[in-house]
């Protein structure tokens, strides 16, 4: 604001963080700190200031929220509600594998091995602005992995794929190993917001 860069002190930055904490989350303040620190590092490299006052400030630590998993009764209620919908196999697979939504929607028929009872996560689906659907590999090597299916999940997927193949044939659409596992009978993939 009105303060000259050379006059900026750690106490000024700390005061801004305290003020922000009343309005935004600690995680957001930590992001502000990161951006502010990089900007002031740049000011040091350009010779505007001799030291970065942000280095003497400790940003707030975001509280880690404990995740609450569904109880078996809640999971069964979700699956029962989804049974009569096109999403049953998707929800079943999500609950029993823990795959992310993008990973589930990125699965192709070739990624599912019902004999061994596994799915190979090789890509994820993302929808860009304007509704453009893209597929990309996981960001890290650990993201590309093979996940075991429960026997019941293998049965659900076998039934789902058989129904999908039959529905696609009825619509005159080719079913192949590149077909998205979770797609509509016309071959269009299910989208994350559907």
Report on the structure:
The chain is built from six helices and five strands, in the order αααααβββββα. With 194 residues, the protein is mainly α. The strands form two sheets. A three-stranded antiparallel sheet has the order 1-2-5. β1 and β2 form a beta hairpin. The mean pLDDT is 93.
Explain briefly what this protein structure is.
The protein has 194 residues and is mainly alpha-helical.
- Shape by Cα distribution: elongated
Largest sheet, strands/sense/barrel: 3 strands, antiparallel
H/E topology pattern: HHHHHEEEEEH
Helix percent reads: 40-55%
Q: Report the portion of residues in β strands.
A: 5-15%
Topology:
Blueprint: H1 10-21, H2 26-45, H3 72-82, H4 88-97, H5 101-106, E1 112-113, E2 118-121, E3 124-127, E4 133-136, E5 145-148, H6 151-170
Antiparallel strand pairs: 1-2, 2-5, 3-4
Helix pairs in contact: 3-4, 4-6
